[in-house]
Amino acid sequence: MRNYNIHPGALLLSALVLSLAIFSFAYRRQRPVAATGTRNCLIVSDIHFSPLLGSSEKDTALKRKLLAWSLDNWKVYFEGKPAEMQMDSNMLFKDANYAILESAVANMKRKLPNPAFIVIAGDFIWHNATPADSLLKKKTIQFIAKLFKENFPGTLIVPAMGNNDTYGNDYDLQDPKFLNDFADAWAPNLLRTSGDSLKKNGYYSCEQGNLKFLVMNSALLYANGNHPDTAAFMLKWVKASLAGANGKNVWIVMHIPPGVNGYNGQDFWRKEYARDFVNTVAKYSSTVRFVICSHIHFDDFKVIYSRGKKPAPVSFIRLVPSVCSNHGNYPSFEVARLSSTGDSIINETSWYLNLSKVRRGIPPRLVPWADSINLKNNFKLKEISATGFSELINTIKTDKTGQAIKSYANFYDVGSPIGVLTINKDTYLKYLKADSLKASQ
Length: 441
Ligand SMILES: [Zn+2]
Known about the structure:
alpha/beta; Purple Acid Phosphatase, chain A, domain 2; seven-stranded mixed beta sheet; six-stranded mixed beta sheet; 14 helices; binds zinc ion
């Protein structure tokens, strides 16, 4: 047997070595943050998960079963349903099935196991859902929320509601029941105070360190909507929150962006609300560090310019692409690298799944989303800022080689070969025009 008698001096030395090791480990763990001052978050949007793929929208027997089954039984059902497990080009122009949803979340976790937070910019519900589907919509949001919460326990999740996220018809304003169910589905990752405000108002704020999120409800602002009192109240709340930000860096999150849709030239919001919002962001441009929208299912940006004869770029909006491939795009999500305080975006990478290259026979969660568009590299941007995007607009406009237009289309389409329907040499000026928003005050 060995002699385990230890000299007290050796013990002291061991303690010293151990504490030095712990100190050095802690230091090493903290040092990268201190040295680079950056962290990473996930930005996700337009999941449009359909539990009904492979069956008729009118399949009331299936709907009844889905309502009766537990969320764990939903998983079992999807895993046995070929239409819910398909991952190939046949999924283009369709809502997300279970395979794409599960694969998306697994790849988010693989790319970023510990995100600083997760922003989800709305549209969880499948297209063509009706008010009669309210209970199924409720359960669908619970199913998606459960998947995120299980994969990212304790991570702050900041969800916004999209135009499909309502117990009414598409674009209808959410009723109190929906607001309650939506807030409850995301708790506790959605903070309680935020959930309370969401239930009461349909919009909310939350904070993490020096970063403050203002999450707006764009259903109030939509071009064909008509909610003047509540819309005005929310826009006032945005102004008051910015005026009282007290040195915090504010990120504004919502689903439908302001301005014009480059695809069809139509206004997304009522003009007066867009004017008000653009003026507010221009006024508080040193406080608003990032505006996240989605809705178009593609990747885009908008620059906000100051008023006057020589408008200067003062702020910018990012439109992030969708998890579902409903518009003929590849499924995508984004990893954004931000400064530790959230006052600047260092880079953004849209990871996507090339549906034409998925190898058969691999479980969805193990299918790698290996392709990506790196925002800075794609455009050789010096910085992700209003100035950077404004210079980019000029570069694309004056490009004679066609290369910049191609980069713009590749970025917008997130790698999918759909440019013939979106940005190409005949349409790019229309899109670029829609990318500029000018303040009037
Ligand atoms: Zn959508």
